[in-house]
Amino acid sequence: MLKDGNEIIGQNIFFPGIIESEEGNYPVLTMGPVCIGKKHQRKGYGKLLVEQTMAIAKSLGYGGVCIEGDYAFYRNCGFTFARDFALQYKNLPEGMEDSFFLAVEFIPGYLSRRGGLYESPYSPLDPE
Fold it and tell me: Which DSSP letter does residue 8 get?
């Protein structure tokens, strides 16, 4: 949570996630949604909030984070396309664009050496 005095400017939420790989399942964090109050938007608070919360996640020993978001914004926070880590979004229909699926590694090779299928804890593509 990001505050200015007693006023909440924004919040960022993390959920535990799992990546299924040929070597077995391994944990990641799922980040989002990132929310900034309307009157505080476009002032750099979103980037600040993401940087602060990502530093906390990293300090807790997590190896990587996945997010569904806008590359134009999140690339400035260290994220790249998840496909660059050989990650696939589970239940994504064949041929559907995946540029919304982003990731960042805290531990070098944590994602890229294993790759695998990621399932969002709040996936709109869940068939059930």
Answer: E
Report CA 60 to chain centroid distance, whole Å: 16
Q: What count of other Cβ atoms lies within 10 Å of the Cβ of residue 59? A: 9
Local confidence pLDDT in tens for the 128 residues of the chain: 778 888 889 999 999 999 999 999 999 999 988 999 999 999 999 999 999 999 999 999 999 999 999 999 999 999 999 999 999 999 888 889 999 999 999 999 999 999 999 988 765 544 45
pTM: 0.88
Give yes or no for a cis peptide into 16 (omega within 30° of 0).
no
Cβ atoms of 75 and 39 within 8 Å: the answer is no
CA of residue 122 relative to chain centroid, distance: 12
* Residue among 66, 84, 89 nearest 20 (CA): 89
